[in-house]
Amino acid sequence: MSDRERRVLEGIEQELRRSDPELVRRFARLGKRRIKGPTMLLALGLVVMVLGSAIVSVAVAVLGIGIAGGALLAAYYRPRGFGFSGRA
């Protein structure tokens, strides 16, 4: 980025902090979230599924489906997993 673009961006950021501090706080909290547990398993499952499809291996694709399914079950039964309400 050029110096001029950086200055314009900094001006926009300062105006946003002044005009809507609540929005700035919300975005700051989003940046601090870490990927963990079921989310990481789901991502791994999706990668393994794509890999299995790319190398045309049914076993690898089925393994990816199993990992992703396990991640979804873990998220469902874990409070606040992916935003699911869990068991009712």
List the SSEs and their pairings.
Layout: H1 3-19, H2 21-32, H3 38-54, H4 58-77
Helix pairs in contact: 1-2, 3-4
Summarize it.
The protein is an all-alpha fold and 88 residues long. The chain contains 4 helices and no strands.
Describe the structure.
- It is a single chain.
- Helices cover 75% and strands 0% of the residues.
- With 88 residues, the protein is mostly helical.
- Helix 3 packs antiparallel against helix 4.
What keywords describe this structure?
elongated, single chain, 2 domains, mainly alpha, 4 helices, 88 residues
Oligomer: single chain
Q: What does the main sheet amount to?
A: none
Residue windows where pLDDT falls under 50 for at least 5 positions: none
Task: Estimate nothing, just give the exact number of structural domains.
Answer: 2
